[in-house]
Amino acid sequence: MDFPEALRLAAEKAGWNPTRIAYEVGVTEQTVRHWLKGNKQPKLPQSQALRAKLPLFGDLLDGKVAA
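-> structure tokens emitted (67 positions)
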């Protein structure tokens, strides 16, 4: 699964919107919207924060669970 799809699905399952993702990871909402559109990828610290706060995200990205 690609990054934007994994993030979108994990956030949806957690009930998070782009504002909440931005708050939890410490970036702007605009940055999150770029990630969700596939225009940008997060830097390592943000990627690690996403994996820590949204465990389903990491599992989807790593192929450990199916969508």
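The CA atoms of residues 23 and 60 lie 21 Å apart.
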